[in-house]
Each structure stands twice: as C-alpha cells, then as structure tokens.
Design goal:
With about 130 residues, this protein is of the alpha+beta class. The protein contains three helices and five strands; from the N terminus they run E-E-E-E-H-E-H-H. It folds into two domains: about 80 residues, 2-Layer Sandwich (S16 Ribosomal Protein, Chain: A), CATH 3.30.1320.10; about 40 residues. The model has no long low-confidence stretch (mean pLDDT about 85). Keywords: Ribonucleoprotein, Ribosomal protein.
Length: about 130
C-alpha cells in the first residue's frame, strides 16, 4: 500500500483549514485516512505557533514506514527539523508571464515612437538657434 502524508482540506468556502494526515495514496484528498498527524491553518500569520501543529513522533514513524510526504508537507517537516532541507531550483521564478512580457514590449515600442520624433525635432531647433545667433 503506497502511503502519503498530505493535507486534507476542511473549513468553509474561502476559509481553509487543513488536517495533516497519513493516507493511502489511492484515496481522495478529503477522503479516508489512516491517522491524523496534525493541523495547518494558513489564515494565521506565518510566525504564529498555532499555524502548524504536528505530532512529530508519529510523523517520524510514518516516514520510517515508507510514507512519502507531499511537497507542502515536506516543507513543514523541514521547518520542524525532521527532514533535511532539499535544494530547490526555480530559475523562472522572477520572470514575468507571457502577457506581461507582451505588454512591456508594446509599452517600449510606444515610448520609442514617442521619443523618436522628439529627437528629430531637437536638432532642427538647435540649427535654427545657431542661425539666429550668427
């Protein structure tokens, strides 16, 4: 049986509350689970101790039995010191999306078009100023 340590959603609409559970990977997200290991309340501030409550001994026991944590639960276990921190690489994290890049290109074209006539007029004005000075 493939075991997972994952989040099971509870709470009402737009007010999520998660249980950290050990469940068979074939069961639905909010369906049957073997054991409840803790709770996660994402609406609390990140520095709050009440945000994540986890039974560390039971989580270690499930990991020793071969349960695989999901990415979000693995981050919680890393913060608790149960798992080693994994090196993550997301090189595209800071780059804007396709639509934002298109908007930026269009904005740059408009600015270039607006600056081009102004640059052409400036030398003509300087030439007129030089002629009148002589």
């Amino acid at each position: 049986m493939a075991m997972k340590i994952r989040l099971a959603r509870g709470g009402s609409k737009k007010r999520p509350h998660y249980s950290i559970v050990a469940a068979d990977s074939r069961m639905p997200r909010d369906g049957r689970f073997i054991e409840k290991l803790g709770i996660y309340n994402p609406q609390l501030p990140k520095d709050s101790e009440e945000r994540v409550k986890l039974d560390l001994d039971r989580a270690k026991a499930w990991l020793e039995k071969g349960a695989k944590p999901t990415d979000r639960v693995a981050r919680m276990l890393e913060a608790a010191g149960i798992l080693e921190k994994k090196e993550r690489s997301n090189p595209k994290k800071g780059t804007p999306g396709k639509a934002a890049q298109e908007r930026a290109a269009a904005r740059a074209e408009k600015e270039a078009a607006a600056n081009a006539p102004a640059e052409e007029e400036a030398p003509a004005e300087e030439a007129v100023a030089e002629e009148s000075a002589e």
